[in-house]
């Protein structure tokens, strides 16, 4: 049986995009438990936030708690459960008009690898948006931040 943690950490802004009208949208994560074997977190996406298609270096579970998003062409509303094996690609994602709140668990290395860069650029252009630099985050010392790779 695992140990209970002292509570979730602070909200970390992990991804950000900008729109032509000047507003931005972000993904923020609140890590519940972050160790070498798994990461569990809440994720809160601003309305209209987009994330490229990608894979993870571990098995990954996503559960929609509030709001909605699309994953590729699939509408994901509260109660939607997505389960992926290590290396499976999913997305791109677009948060709905009220944003979306997710619960996620990654069983192993939680870092992601991009997929379909041309499709990502077309999606950004179709929403008059651009990818902004990834905000700095407080990663554990044992896990290098590869979001810029």
What does this structure look like?
There is one protein chain. The chain is built from one helix and ten strands, in the order βββββββββαβ. With 149 residues, the chain is mostly beta strands. The protein has a single domain (11-130), classed as Jelly Rolls (Sandwich), CATH 2.60.120. Strand 1 and strand 2 (24-34) form a beta hairpin. The longest helix is centred in the C-terminal third of the chain and has 10 residues, at 117-126. It is globular and about 40 Å long.
Q: What is the secondary structure topology, with strand pairs?
A:
Elements: E1 11-19, E2 24-34, E3 39-45, E4 50-51, E5 54-71, E6 74-76, E7 81-84, E8 89-90, E9 93-114, H1 117-126, E10 129-131
Antiparallel strand pairs: 1-2, 1-10, 2-3, 3-9, 4-9, 5-6, 5-7, 5-8, 5-9
Task: Write the element-wise H/E pattern from the N-terminal end onward.
Answer: EEEEEEEEEHE
CATH topological fold name: Jelly Rolls
| Cα Rg | 15 Å
Architecture, according to CATH?
Sandwich
Please write the CATH class name. Answer: Mainly Beta
CATH superfamily, called what? Jelly Rolls
What sort of overall outline do the alpha carbons produce when their principal axes are compared? globular
Contiguous uncertain segments of 5+ residues: none
């Amino acid at each position: 049986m695992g140990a209970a943690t002292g509570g979730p950490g602070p909200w970390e802004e992990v991804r950000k995009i900008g729109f032509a009208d000047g507003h931005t949208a972000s993904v923020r994560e609140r890590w519940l438990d972050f160790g070498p074997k798994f990461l569990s977190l809440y994720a809160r996406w601003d309305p209209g936030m987009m994330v490229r298609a990608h894979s993870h270096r571990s098995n990954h579970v996503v559960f929609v708690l509030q709001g909605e998003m699309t994953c590729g062409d699939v509408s994901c509303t509260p109660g939607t459960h997505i389960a992926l094996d290590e290396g499976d690609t999913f997305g791109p994602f677009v948060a709905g008009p009220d944003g979306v709140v997710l619960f996620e668990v990654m069983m192993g290395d939680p870092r992601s690898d991009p997929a379909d860069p041309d499709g990502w650029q077309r999606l950004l252009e179709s929403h008059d948006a651009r990818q902004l630099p990834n905000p700095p985050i407080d990663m554990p010392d044992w896990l290098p931040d590869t979001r810029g790779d």
